Amino acid sequence: MYGQTETSCVATYGRFNDRPGSAGRTIHLAEVRLVDDYDRPVPAGQVGEIVMKGPMVFKGYWNLPEDNEQTFREGWHHTGDLGRFDEDGFLWYSGRTADKELIKPGGENVYPAEVEKVI
Fold it and tell me: CA 80 to CA 71: how far, in whole Å?
């Protein structure tokens, strides 16, 4: 199962024994695809950023036009998550994009790259 706060529900789902460890397949009404750094679709088996659209995806961040410009491109919500589809259409979560990876100690956003610079 895969979804985010921004999708208000799940975008993929699979029964536990269908493909253990996967996030399942795309649900009805959701569109999920994987893209490279230039927003080009990647083939099954390759890792790409998970992007989605559909009626469950929110319309944007309140009063944050710059964030909306980065997050929404050509109607697709760019999640900042990475994954791959297998040959049967099951989604496998792989991690976060470098610009979205963060740690939240005590409510503060800290990016690992910032910590690396200091160390």
Answer: 9
User: What CATH number should be reported for the domain holding residue 114?
Assistant: 2.30.38.10
pTM: 0.78
Domain carrying residue 39: 2-118
Q: What tens digit of pLDDT does each residue of 82-92 get?
A: 999 999 999 99
- Give yes or no for a contact between 31 and 55, defined as CB atoms under 8 angstroms apart: no
- The letter for the amino acid at 17 is N
Number of domains in the chain: 1
